[in-house]
Here is the input.
Amino acid sequence: MFSVDTVIHQPGSFAKEQLDESFDYRWPEGGLQYIPDWVYTSPAIYQREVERIFHGPTWNFVALEAEIPRPGDFKRSYVGPTPVVVARDTDGSVHAFENRCAHRGAEFCRSQRGNTREFICPYHQWSYDLRGNLQGVPFKRGVKGEGGGMPKDFRNEDHALMKLNVTTLHGVVFASFSKDVEPIEAYLGPEILKDFEVVFKGRQLRILGYYRNELPGNWKLYHENLKDPYHATLLHSFLVTFGLMVAGSRNGMIADATGRHGTLASAKPDDVAAAVDQVKGEMRAYREDFKLADRRFLEYVREFDSPWSVTMQTIWPNLIVQRELNTLGIRHIVPNGPHSMIMLWTMFGYDTDDEAMVRHRLRQGNLMGPAGFLGLEDNEAIKFVQEGLRRSRSHTGVLKLGGDTLGSTSSVIDEAAIRGMYAYYRKQMEL
Amino acid sequence: MYPGYDMAVADARAMRELRLEIEEFHADYCWTLDCGDVESWPDYFTDDAVYRVTARENADAGLPVGLVYADSKAMIRDRAFALKHTQMYAPRSLQHFVTNVRVLEAKGGADGTVKAQANYLLLQTLVDGPTTIQQSGRYYDSFVRVAGKLLLKERQCVYDTVLIANDLVLPV
Here is the structure.
């Protein structure tokens, strides 16, 4: 069912998948215009990523506050591949801690989300409060007359769950295993903060539901896909045919100063037909004969103070914020080894939406997600890339569009944002 | 359970006949999809049909999102056209298996709506992979009779297979 069920060429059966720390990880000549396959296939590189990136000084998305609105609300979540619990305490504050009992290590929280007064590990019933502090240990003093129990110097304070550093911004909750991560606004940078605020600032979210899928590709490919406006105008017939994103129209690939985050932005042209007409010769995906039977699907309700009708934000290392016309959502990337990632999707609207607006968002939701007209094509393409990287004898990819520049571009025929991400990545990874 | 799909008390013999008719409907529906004739798939729906594929966690929590969400036959038609002609995905074949058909309500409302449920299993085979379970789930269906034939006015496909294997391309 999932990538590991592949019959031909089981993951792990190729040399490129077996590289350990002893391999000479030397970036190919030509700098960032070439990407070595081992960044996507090596288990040693993956372990280094978990340690330095996901468990390092980064802010990882863990929850939307709207998912846990009341005291005692909690959800299971992940920082990198590591399971955590996000909970709201009685005073309204939000906390995150490892989903691992401090006693014997059981992953104690089994419900996806819920409401509770305390967390009790089912194995030996150690109990923890909503901040992850150890509350109770059964038979702590042993049984009268028989002895046993904890040593006299056992202090509950010394055995809390491993707590994470937590910050929230406009209803979005981030966590970090590091105490040395900069404040979230500085972490995002002004270029990214701007479009992030368009979606979240001053808004009360209404959760519309969830999707989850396993995507058999390296987690970085998802970031690259959304820092790659070139593919958007070629792969996705919906974008092209209906003029949602057309080369030559007003588009932008916006990167922050570090290169790690990005916003893929586009403005639906006023005259779609004219915009498409100029470039359709280059685009095989363009379908003259495709006319929507239900035109409500792609209507755009102008609800944002923004020049862009679409912003797809990649927030390093594990968050995508989707604003595609009126379909809104976040995607939480859970890395799952070098060849796989789990995608956790939360779709939302706003509490001010009337029933008609909710239905409009649901209809437009068909663009995205694991069955979306754009989403499924991306998932297929990323799967194809991972298979090609794992199974081939060649060993490098090419990123030459736009030369050797890094970061933001106004042209969509450019790969500078991917190169910018790898410039940052190489520093973090010492590669 | 799905809101609005409770078992009503009715004439057992009439229910049995209806069940046979619904089983024939499922067999035809699955045959159409399993043959790859996705452009005939919209013919099983009324013009105002609602079709949604959603995870059980959404259905249980009353959350409205759909992995696929259509509230008109026209939207179903657009999806069918896209799948046949414009979407990029690896070639695959499907087999639908529908069992445990239960007629819940033989005549609800003025239009004579028939409500039923059934379990489904959707198997998928890619060109170089094993046959895998794409989805295990349950249909909650509302049928109406148009010119003597049952058509779906609503089909809620509620799946248990919460972690989707990459994507869901072809219809459930």
Remarks:
- The mean pLDDT of chain B is 93.
- Chain B touches chain A through 43 residues (CB under 8 Å).
- Residues 12-159 of chain B form a domain with the Nuclear Transport Factor 2; Chain: A, fold (CATH 3.10.450.50).
